[in-house]
Amino acid sequence: MYANDPHAPARARLTVPALRKMKAEGRRIVSITAYDASFARSVDAAGIDLVLVGDSLGMVCQGRDSTLPVTVDDIVYHVACVARGLSGAFLVADLPFQSDATPERALDASTRCLQAGAQMVKLEGAGPKLEVIRFLAEREIPVCAHLGLTPQSVLRLGGYKVQGREAAAAKKLLADARAVAEAGADLLVLECVPSALAAEITAAVEIPTIGIGAGPSCDGQILVLHDMLGMNSGHRRPRFVKDFLAEGGSVLGAFRAYAAAVRDGSFPAPEHGY
Ligand code: KIV
After folding, report:
1. 140 is catalytic
2. 33 pLDDT above the threshold of 60
3. Would you say the CB of residue 55 lies under 6 angstroms from ligand 1?
4. Fewest C-beta atoms under 10 Å: which of 8, 73, 169, 194?
């Protein structure tokens, strides 16, 4: 099937309850980032479950050094582009740096993202963000929390480093995961945390976890699109990335190979974890 085929059968749109059901039934949630309509069509045609318009667009599309300069306008623009390319995949929009600093700001930014076509917003951190998550969830905005390596904290973290290696940090991450779920998050991204800790968190929370550099036991996996196509965006390739274009033979083939590998449990392999 050609990825842009207007006669391709439409997929039923995934929903928040459907994502929860996938966790309950042990079906892995295949996720990827996308930033434009053409790639979104191809990702959708490959049967990928969830697409994130990540603030990683600052690095892979805009050529910046970090995600911090990305604005709500940037995210909304890319969400609208991606939404036009999707029929079945669930679409999540990242809330960029400080757009979630207060509940009111987060509500404004989230409303714009949902009106542009997203079905959920993602925000980084716990602590003061618990109030924001609760505020959004109470106003019927589905929220994906993001813990572990939170790239918007790069200045304080001093780099992109694995989180939760020491016992105290692991205990805090587990407590934060429980807290974001309790505050009303419907999904949880775990980035760059030891595989054993991600497994413990996944077992401890009822909401699905989506891992990136978090081992094979999460309920789903996500990769940045450019990374899994083997493109060098000018940054060191992290250990958790695999080039699926090499084995898939084409862009659509790469997306299908990735989806199959996540679903049959062969990706991530032990060498992709910490
Ligand atoms: O911005 C992004 O692409 C992300 C993923 C890496 C989870 O947050």
Report:
1. no
2. yes
3. yes
4. 73
Around Cβ 86, how many Cβ atoms within 10 Å? 22
DSSP-derived secondary structure letter, 240: T
Cα–Cα dist 82/159, whole Å: 30
Q: Is any ligand 1 atom within 6 A of the Cβ of residue 54?
A: yes
Question: For residues 150 and 191, is the Cβ–Cβ distance under 8 A?
Answer: yes
**Element at 188 (helix H, strand E):** strand 187-191
Q: Which amino acid type is present at position 243?
A: D
Residue 77 token pair: 């623009």
Q: What b/e string do you get for 176-210 counting C-beta neighbours within 10 Å, with b at 16 or more? A: bbebbbebbbbbbbbbbbbbebbbbbbeebebbbb
Task: Say which amino acid occupies 222.
Answer: I
Closest-lying ligand 1 atom to the alpha carbon of residue 55 = 1
Cα 63 to its chain centre, rounded Å, is: 20
User: Over 80: is that where the pLDDT of 177 sits?
Assistant: yes
